[in-house]
Design brief:
- The chain has 207 residues and is mainly α.
- Helices cover 71% and strands 4% of the residues.
- Strands 1-2 form a two-stranded antiparallel ribbon.
- α1 (13-38) packs antiparallel against α2 (40-52), α1 packs parallel to α4 and α5 (89-105) packs across α7.
- The longest helix is centred in the N-terminal third of the chain and has 26 residues, at 13-38.
Length: 207
């Protein structure tokens, strides 16, 4: 083609359709888990509230990773709850696969590891021995999640020093990704992400 027109035309229709699909699945899974543990009214309320949150609806229309991250985080936590009901080796492996996909989507998914280990510690105070899942299963879940991440995206592991330096420069030196902060698009300070984490993740889930 001539100057200014791409040789291979493209559009974002398919990417946006994928975002819509993942948002629908996220609402469905959230509704199902809420119904399973808290009843039909809570499940319907969960689905209605989540599907009408303006920020969530806005993300479901954009071609980005945030809505896919929301899906994998939701499905990972949901399957963790199902796994806790009856721990099995197959469930542990599949949960590790889901967590690996979560890490592959966005690095902030690392928060699921404190959730997993926190529950493992807390179960000794609230669960009977027959209901506990073992430390071997926890290590299997974590190990298989990293195996999944390596198989699907080996670059950080094969170039660990370069990846570590890039991450250090991105998060500790430059301050992080550009964000809309105080009305301007700027490199946000570190405390922004700390506050965002505290607001987004209830502390009761971690401790």
């Amino acid at each position: 083609g001539y100057f200014g027109v791409p040789v291979f035309p493209y559009n974002l229709t398919f990417s946006r359709l994928m975002a819509i699909l993942f948002s629908i699945l996220t609402v469905y899974i959230s509704t199902y888990i809420s119904m399973r543990y808290f009843g039909k009214i809570s499940g319907l309320a969960t689905g209605i509230i989540l599907s009408t949150i303006p920020f969530f609806v806005g993300l479901s229309q954009n071609a980005n990773l945030d809505i896919i991250f929301s899906f994998f985080f939701t499905v990972s936590i949901s399957f963790l709850l199902l796994y806790i009901e009856k721990p099995t080796l197959k469930k542990a492996i599949f949960l590790g696969f889901l967590i690996g996909c979560l890490q592959l989507t966005k690095q902030t998914g690392i928060v699921i590891y404190p959730l997993l280990f926190s529950y493992y510690v807390l179960q000794f105070f609230v669960k009977k021995s027959s209901q506990r899942f073992t430390l071997n299963h926890v290590l299997l879940i974590v190990g298989f999640s990293f195996t999944t991440l390596f198989l699907l995206w080996p670059m950080p592991f094969l170039h660990f020093n370069e990846y570590l330096n890039f991450t250090k420069n991105m998060w500790l030196t430059s301050g992080g990704y550009p964000e809309w902060f105080l009305g301007h698009l700027r490199i946000t300070p570190i405390f922004y992400y700390v506050l965002y984490f505290l607001i987004s993740i209830p502390i009761a889930l971690l401790f």
